[in-house]
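Before relying on records like the one below, remember that each one covers exactly one chain. Contacts with other chains, cofactors or solvent are not represented anywhere in the record.
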Amino acid sequence: MLSETLRWRVNMADETNVSDGDTGATIYTHDLAGNFTSLNEEGERMTGYSAGSVVGMNIRDIVVPDQLEMARAMIARKAFEDAAVTVYDLDIIGRGGQVIPLRLETRIVYRDGRAFAVEGIANVRR
């Protein structure tokens, strides 16, 4: 399972256009209700939010309002329609109020055979 996750992360980093100066991809997790549970250091740099401040925030707090329903639909698609991985573009609002255009690749994390959370890799779109 771990090697599959690492392969998935490497493939995403290789296949996504990353803006100049980025040292890696943002990796985050949230539960099926959209409540963030983790954010890596690259995500802190990209968004301006600390990992501690993101935990407990919901996707509705950072996704641009006109794309929130699409973001929720992508969670449902993965969790309830058995889509292994979804790739899509989404804009978020950084801590400073700036809009950050992202390319996301997300997948469901399972616990005891049941959908439990979403793990995502995000890179800034050019």
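The first strand starts at residue 26 and ends at 31.
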